[in-house]
């Protein structure tokens, strides 16, 4: 079962992100699934579509590469990297035409051949910095969190 679950998780990234198949979301994500990311919980495909649509409106040439996949029982964890070209204003930032890179980890629980729960963590700040060209110096970061460097 663990190997099949790994393949399903890889299929998600291949179909949804690398191929841009919006319909794959409802094929793989259960209607009542809960995906947790950045303090938010989205439920099922209907909750995930707006995120997918924003990303598609902001980026082209999205390509996810798998670094590692670990599975045990009904859980799968993937470590991945991603490159994409910033060609649209789907995130409210004018397109830079830059090729950007980010990394992340995704953990999912699988039941009956579909995702029923997920936890997503990726470097959104790094991606935003690449788009805005605003390097975050250690002193700036320290000022934001109230600590001296």
Q: Any overview of this molecule?
A:
This protein has 149 residues and is of the alpha+beta class. The protein has one domain (2-123): Roll (Nuclear Transport Factor 2, Chain: A), CATH 3.10.450. Helices cover 37% and strands 41% of the residues. It is built from 5 helices and 6 strands, in the order ααββαββββαα. Mean pLDDT is 89; it is low at 139-149.
Structural class: alpha+beta
| Shape field | globular
CATH class category label: Alpha Beta
Q: Please give the domain count.
A: 1
- Please tell me the overall pLDDT: 89
Strand content: 35-45%
Low-confidence residue ranges = 139-149
- Helical region count? 5
- Portion of residues in helices? 25-40%
Distance between the termini: 48 Å
Number of strands: 6
| Biggest sheet details | 6 strands, mixed
Strand order of the largest sheet: 2-1-6-5-4-3
Reading the helices and strands in chain order gives: HHEEHEEEEHH
CATH topology: Nuclear Transport Factor 2, Chain: A
**Radius of gyration using CA atoms only:** 17 Å
Query: From the 3D coordinates, which CATH architecture would you assign?
Result: Roll
Task: Provide the fold topology.
Layout lengths: L1 H17 L4 H6 E9 L2 E4 H15 E14 L2 E12 L12 E13 L2 E9 L1 H9 L5 H8 L4
Parallel strand pairs: 1-6
Antiparallel strand pairs: 1-2, 3-4, 4-5, 5-6
């Amino acid at each position: 079962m663990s190997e099949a679950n790994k393949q399903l998780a890889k299929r998600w990234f291949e179909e949804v992100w690398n191929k841009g198949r919006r319909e794959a979301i409802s094929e793989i994500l259960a209607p009542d699934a809960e995906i947790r990311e950045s303090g938010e919980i989205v439920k099922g495909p209907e909750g995930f579509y707006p995120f997918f649509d924003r990303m598609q409106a902001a980026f082209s040439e999205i390509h996810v590469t798998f670094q590692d996949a670990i599975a045990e029982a009904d859980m799968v964890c993937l470590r991945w990297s991603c490159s994409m070209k910033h060609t649209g204003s789907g995130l409210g930032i004018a397109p830079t035409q830059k090729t950007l890179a980010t990394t992340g980890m995704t953990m999912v629980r699988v039941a009956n051949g579909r995702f029923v729960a997920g936890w997503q963590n990726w470097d959104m700040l790094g991606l935003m910095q690449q788009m805005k060209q605003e390097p975050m110096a250690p002193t700036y970061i320290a000022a934001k969190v109230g600590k001296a460097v």
